[in-house]
Amino acid sequence: MKGETAFPKYPTYKDSGIEWLGVVPTHWHVRQLKRALKLNDGGVWGDDSSNGDGNIVLRSTEQTVDGNWRIEEPAWRLLSDHEKRSAMLFAGDLLVTKSSGSALHIGKTSLVSEEISKMQCCFSNFMQRLRVDTSMIPKYIWFIMNIDLARSQFDFMSNSTTGLANLNSTMLGQLLLTFPPLPEQQAIASFLDRETAKIDTLIEKQQRLIALLTEKRQAVISHAVTKGLDPNVPMKDSGIEWLGMVPEHWNTNSKLKTLALNRPAAFTNGPFGSDLLTSELQGSGVPVVYIRDIKIAGYCRTSNSYITEFKALQLDKFRVDAHDVL
To answer: How far apart are CA 286 and CA 274, in angstroms?
Structure first.
């Protein structure tokens, strides 16, 4: 693949003993995370602070899906001295979301920076703090925690008996990961910082380009349907402030209802309610179009609801024909 980073080969590899991990460099170890943890504890919440006194208590809402921080409106809470001592964050701490209704958010992990540490932040009771010992580089662990290597394990270990996926300290400690020597961990983390920064820059440029192209697309459509295609045609005031000038020979006095077919069903709502009951829907027959089937780009059927041919005959005025607008 063009532009793909070429990774050098290690002299020898060994079977990790874990099917989904495969082989790893011979001198690496595969262990549970708990072997490298000094702290694995929950947070605090404290009492309301109406005037911004107290300490900032970071929540999972301050974490992005990819494990970065977005601290815009932090929660200020009144904490006891014991709570502050137990939940005060220091640079290098890792915060994990341990309860969420979304598989995207369960297990997302953010690294506490020097800046956050200086703010004397604490963390909420829906998060778990991990503090690694001297055998691991926190940034190396952060990279692992935010990829499928860890997330798939979290998804498997978490339970959802209440509709929420939940992790606990034991589950987090059981996370299996690779333990290279410290110099290699640092080298890997530094390499990933450089490479992901390049990729993030490319993504940002592409997003800006997409936004500009979307704006141009809208402008092209808007101009064509309000000004026409001939730049030399005589223009007139439409009499509508937001519409402005239009080609002189265009009619601007027609409302949409005058353009529809002259029949009762030209403008109508769908039949749900008195005409169609949800109990009448079934798995085959005549398809029913739902609002979720109408996408920005057009129609894309995602629902799986149907009615019988007999019911469709009863609802004939609601049948969708070619060129109808929904």
So the answer is: 19
